[in-house]
Design goal:
The chain is of the alpha+beta class and 360 residues long. It has helices at residues 6-27, 67-70, 109-115, 150-160, 201-215, 262-269, 301-317, 321-324, 342-348, 350-356, and strands at residues 89-99, 120-131, 137-147, 166-167, 172-176, 181-187, 190-196, 237-243, 276-282, 291-297, 327-328, 335-339. It has a seven-stranded antiparallel beta sheet with strand order 1-2-3-7-6-5-4. The longest helix has 22 residues, at 6-27. It starts with 5 loop residues before the first helix and ends with a helix.
Length: 360
């Protein structure tokens, strides 16, 4: 093979630059040279490679990956921003991904139990930093949970936050201002949480901007219809929770005088992978407490009738306070409606209203 001396290489490069300049004048300013793909977007297999003839000119300047981006997990979600993708924010920790059996690395032990009843595929985490106009630091921890269905993602949202303060980001975003600022968002098959110790108006706007970027890269889905089976009376509704198992319910949902046993009642109702339950909590102005009602959707009518039979037989055998406070309606196709606050329900009649909303 012929080897060129350094002087010959320099002369050849100068000649090529001269030719390129002449060609640019001939074609006009409207023609642009296609840039080389960066290392992050280069084809990974021969099938993806497009044959392109290139002139061996000086290398095109590339923006290298930052050390933080280079540490991202190979299966990091595409919606999680790169180091400088969001104006005003910089990623300070690589994106880490935890699969279903590894959720303890992403959330608290209590959340591991809560999430264990949903169809969770993975959880991803990262940390981003921003500067306020006063020069102080604002850090935001991002948690993104990917699920099999919008039911699971929306259900996680309801169990994570019952806040009535909303912002128009994604499918639904709730704002919690306890112990800092927390944005809880449902978008498609994903639940996103952004948490920060900062809580000023300025930092809130910055956090929302970060959330906008993330949700903008996630496909939208319709909100699960089961949520609308329970009336959305603004002056009475305290919260609605969508679950596959009562073990996911937060304590506030069943903060009543005679709460049911979560595990036993879930088994009695046949909750699990295929059934979906929506629990609603309503104020009863003339009552001694809240009215907690629920509806379960089963995959088939028979499953609803079987659950009704099991629950009814138990209520007939037992005369404890919990059983006395429980009431059921006959199955409505694949749906079963009930309450654990029979006295308050007798004052409010929420269950018949739910029955009228079914089927969707």
């Amino acid at each position: 093979m012929l080897r060129l001396s350094p002087s010959m290489v320099t002369a050849r490069a100068a000649w090529l630059r001269l030719c390129a300049a002449g060609l640019g004048l001939a074609l006009g300013a409207g023609c642009k040279q296609e840039p080389e793909p960066s290392a992050a977007t280069a084809p990974s297999s021969p099938q993806d490679t497009t044959a392109v003839s290139r002139i061996d000119t000086e290398p095109i300047a590339k923006t290298p990956l930052t050390a933080v981006d280079a540490g991202d997990a190979p299966n990091a979600p595409e919606c999680m921003p790169a180091a400088d993708a969001v104006p005003g924010w910089k990623k300070t920790e690589p994106i880490r991904v935890f699969m279903t059996g590894e959720l303890a690395g992403a959330v608290t032990p209590a959340e591991v139990i809560q999430l264990g009843y949903f169809r969770v595929l993975s959880a991803a985490t990262s940390v981003y930093a921003s500067k306020t106009s006063a020069g102080s630091d604002c850090r935001a921890r991002v948690l993104l949970i990917e699920t099999e269905s919008p039911i699971d993602a929306y259900g996680i949202l309801t169990c994570q936050s019952a806040s009535q303060e909303l912002v128009k980001v994604g499918g639904e975003t709730r704002v919690d201002r306890t112990d800092g600022m927390h944005l809880h968002c449902w978008q498609g098959k994903n639940y996103v949480r952004i948490s920060s110790d900062c809580g000023s108006t300025e930092t809130t706007d910055q956090l929302i901007r970060l959330l906008f970027h993330i949700t903008g890269h996630i496909p939208r889905e319709d909100r699960p219809a089961m949520v609308d089976a329970l009336p959305a009376d603004a002056e009475l509704l305290e919260g609605r929770w969508l679950v596959r198992h009562m073990g996911s319910l937060p304590p506030r949902a069943i903060d009543i005088a005679n709460p049911p046993d979560l595990m036993k009642t879930s088994e009695l109702l046949g909750l699990g992978e295929k059934a979906v339950m929506c629990v609603g909590r309503y104020k009863v102005p003339e009552g001694r407490g809240a009215n907690v009602v629920w509806v379960v959707q089963y995959p088939a009518n028979k499953a609803a009738y079987d659950a009704h039979a099991r629950y009814t037989q138990l209520l007939m055998r037992q005369k404890d306070a919990v059983s006395q406070s429980t009431n059921l309606l006959p199955p409505h196709g694949p749906y079963l409606i009930g309450t654990w606050t029979a006295e308050e329900e007798a004052l409010q009649y929420m269950m018949p209203r739910i029955a009228k909303l079914l089927p969707f």
